[in-house]
Structure formats: C-alpha cells, structure tokens
Design goal:
By secondary structure, the protein is of the alpha+beta class. It has 7 helices and 17 strands. It binds zinc ion. Zinc ion binds at residues 298, 302, 308.
C-alpha cells in the first residue's frame, strides 16, 4: 500500500485518501483543513476521528469558490447546543443526520442532486467538538484527525459492486460454519442481492467469520468498537449478527453511521448490526431470511448515505425529489415492504459511496 492511497479491487473506480491533523481550539473548532478535489472525483466521504468522549461535527465544508457545501457554518461565539448544530446541518445543501457522534463523524458528498463537486484547490473543512457535561454541551478541545476519502471514476457511476463481511458470535445459533449452511442466511443474501440489483449494485465477495468476543446485546453502537476494529478486510462493509441490537428485541438492525466511515475498518461505527432475535426471524424462519434481507438492505443503505424517506422526529423529508414516503421504498421508516426498491436518485447516492466499487459509468 503506497502512502496516502488505499488498495482498490479491479474496478473502474479508485480511492484516494487524504489525511489531515487538526486541533480544536477554545471555541471547540478546528482551523480550516484544506484539500484538493481531483476532476474525476465522483463521491467523497469526510470523516473526523478523535476522543471517544467527544461528539464531533463536520462543519464548514466549502469548495474553491467559498460556497458552503455542508454545514453548519461557523457561528460567532460557537455553538453550545448540539441540537442547534443539528438544525443548522439539516438546512445546509448537503445535509447530515442527527445521530451518535461520539468519537467520530462523517458525511458523504454529494448526497442529493443539487450538490456539485467542483474540482480544484481551495476545499476546506472544519471540525467541531462538544462534551456533554452537567447537562450542557461545552466546546471540546484537543487533537482531531480528518480523513477525506475521494472516490475517483471516469464518469458518474451507473453500476457497482459491494463486498460484505459477516461476523458471528453464536447469537441465534449462527457461527461461521452454521451460517454458511443456513437457509435463512442464504435467503437473506438472495433478498439483499435482488434489492440492490434494482439499484445497479451487485453483491460481490461475501466472507463469513467467527467473532466470539463480540457483545451479544450491545446497548449502543459505541459498544461495538472493538468488534469493528477486529474486521481485517480493507474494503466493503462489516455486518455483525448479535442477539439484540441497541438493547431491544424490537429493533431489527442499526447502522454505525449515516454514512458509515468508508473503507476504514476499525474506525468507530464502521459496521452494520443485525438482530438474530428480531420477531420476524424467529417466528417465520423461511420468510425470516427475506425479512433479514430487507432489514440488511435498509441498514446498509443508511451506512451508504441514505436517509429515511421521511423523518418523523425532525418532521423532514429526505433531500431527494424522486422518493415517495411509502412502504415500497427501502428507506421507509418502518415495515418496509417485501418488494421494496430504491428510487433512481437513491441509487445514484449509493453508487457514490467509496465502499461501492464502480463497475460501469454513464
Ligand atoms: Zn432506518
């Protein structure tokens, strides 16, 4: 592996990694960290990593013309309330999602058709950090690392390939050996392949591994950090099968991030969790495989940068004009239908994530 460069599988796309180090000052903000966007960039993941006790926000992403691409913009006196930051991020052209931010934060550019990646010099990012102490959000100080993962391809991607790495700890009776022979897992992968094929994405290499040290019932994604770090594969996305997810038998799955930290196993939140005790799996083993496949399709799509078609909590639609808020869309909030699909603009976002290798271009 050459410095500053990630290995890519034979594909039309390649990945370029730019790394920067910054320091959060007294106001909790880093200095502007600069990078150059090559003319063939088709998707970029910007991710900050640091202290697990600090909540991070990617802020002030501006292109060479000083145009704000992703917010929040720096505010005089700084933000002291994380919800204020969330509101600002959601108003910005390439908006981000409220979520777990402890230890890392990431955004995928572009995540809607209005955002253009303007190539050239002058791109800048700042990182903000908060600590929650005594019921208040206080500016955090100290060092922070910034990864800019640039996906390069000759033109806009129209088809791609996604590798998956499955990890088991015996939950639901699944180990590397039993999962390989399981009809439920086979049905899950068949459903996943069918759903992603509609978006032009084939499921490529699928690996099976035992990971006995993985928690059986993680109450937060942060509890999975050691398990994410145990993923030895340099590409694709890690999928972790646990008895319960986020402390509840009613939750079918969870994504480590929206988007997840791309092609960097071991970074906090670099994986997707799937529950083996989800009620649909236990009560309908045959349909259960398909239900698992629908859950995995949805969680992977969060990881690859898609929002719910409508977010009830924030009373907001996703930023894509061609999606309908209905069960026939994979990103419907609950009870996604068995034959759900992605819209063309959702497919375009998925194809831009660095974890998906490009196999055809426009
Ligand atoms: Zn969801």
């Amino acid at each position: 592996m050459a410095p500053g460069r990630l290995e890519a599988r034979p594909a039309l796309s390649s990945l370029q990694l730019v790394q920067r180090s910054g320091t959060l000052g007294a106001d909790g903000k880093s200095e502007p960290l600069a990078f150059v966007l090559p003319p063939d960039a088709v998707g970029v993941v910007v991710q900050a990593r640091g202290d697990p006790k600090v909540s991070y926000v990617i802020s002030d992403v501006t292109d060479g013309t000083q145009q704000l691409v992703h917010g929040p913009a720096a505010k005089k006196g700084g933000f002291t309330d994380a919800f204020e930051v969330d509101r600002e991020e959601r108003q910005s052209p390439n908006r981000a999602e409220l979520g777990e931010r402890a230890g890392s934060a990431s955004v995928l550019l572009p995540n809607n058709p209005k955002v253009q990646l303007r190539p050239g010099k002058g791109w800048q990012v700042r990182v903000q950090g908060f600590r929650y102490e005594g019921g208040k959000y206080l500016p955090a100080n100290g060092p922070v690392k910034l990864d800019v993962i640039i996906k390069r391809a000759p033109k806009a991607p129209t088809a791609g390939r996604l590798n998956l790495h499955l990890f088991f700890n015996g939950s639901g009776g699944y180990t590397r050996a039993t999962a390989r022979d399981s009809k439920v897992i086979a049905n899950m992968l068949a459903k996943l392949s069918e759903t992603y094929k509609k978006a032009g994405i084939e499921i490529g290499q699928v690996t099976f591994d035992d990971l006995p040290s993985m928690p059986s019932a993680p109450k937060s994604v942060a509890e999975m950090e050691q398990s994410f770090a145990a993923n030895p594969y340099p590409d694709g996305v890690g999928v972790y099968f646990t008895d319960q997810v986020l402390g509840s038998r009613l939750i079918a799955g969870a994504a480590g991030g929206l988007p997840g930290p791309a092609v960097a196993p071991g970074v906090p939140r670099s994986g997707v969790l799937i529950s083996t005790s989800d009620v649909r799996v236990n009560h309908e083993p045959q349909a259960g495989g398909a239900a698992l496949g629908t859950t995995l399709s949805h969680e992977l799509a969060h990881y690859l940068g898609l929002f719910h078609t409508r977010d009830d909590f924030m009373n907001m639609d996703d930023p894509l004009p061609d999606t309908q808020d209905a069960p026939d869309n994979v990103m419907f909030r609950t009870d996604v239908g068995a034959d759900a699909a992605f819209s063309p603009q959702q497919a375009a976002v998925l194809l831009r994530h660095p974890s998906v290798a490009v196999t055809a271009v426009a």
